[in-house]
Design a protein that fits this description.
Blueprint: H1 7-13, H2 26-36, H3 42-49, H4 53-65, E1 71-74, H5 82-86, E2 90-92, E3 102-106, H6 111-119
Antiparallel strand pairs: 1-3, 2-3
C-alpha cells in the first residue's frame, strides 16, 4: 500500500485536510464526487463513508490496485474481505483460480462511483 496521502484516501480514512497546502477539504471532495455520480449510487457512497476505518483502508487499497475493469488480485488474508462482501462493495471473481490469491470486482454495481474514486487516487 502506498504511504503517499491522496485527497480521497484522506477522506475515506476520515482524516482532516489542510487547505493551506492547497488540498481540498472533506466537504469539497465529497461535493465533487456527488456531482460525478448518479443518484442511484449515492447510497453506496454513504455506505462507504460510514464504514469502519480498517474496512475503508482495505476498500481504498482495492480501488487503488484495481485495473480499468474494476478487478484486482488480493493475496492477503481472505477473511479481511468478508465484511466488504457482506456490504456488497466487492464480489469474488469466480473465474479466477488460485489457491493463495483471490480476484475481486470492486464496486461492480456502481460504475460511476468506481470511476470517480479511481480518478481521485
Amino acid at each position: 500500500m502506498s504511504n503517499k496521502p491522496t485527497e480521497l484516501g484522506i477522506l475515506l480514512r476520515g482524516e482532516r485536510t489542510n487547505n493551506r497546502n492547497g488540498e481540498m477539504d472533506k466537504a469539497s471532495i465529497e461535493k465533487v464526487i456527488l456531482n460525478e455520480i448518479p443518484k442511484e449510487e449515492v447510497s453506496t457512497w454513504e455506505l462507504i463513508k460510514n464504514l469502519p476505518t480498517p474496512q475503508k483502508k482495505l476498500l481504498w487499497y482495492l480501488i487503488i490496485e484495481s485495473n480499468k475493469d474494476g478487478t484486482t488480485i488480493y493475496s492477503h488474508d481472505k477473511n479481511n474481505l468478508l465484511f466488504l462482501m457482506d456490504k456488497g462493495l466487492i464480489r469474488l471473481n469466480t473465474f479466477f483460480k488460485s489457491t493463495t490469491k483471490v480476484s475481486v470486482f470492486v464496486l461492480r454495481d456502481t460504475p460511476y462511483l468506481m470511476r470517480a474514486l479511481s480518478r481521485k487516487r
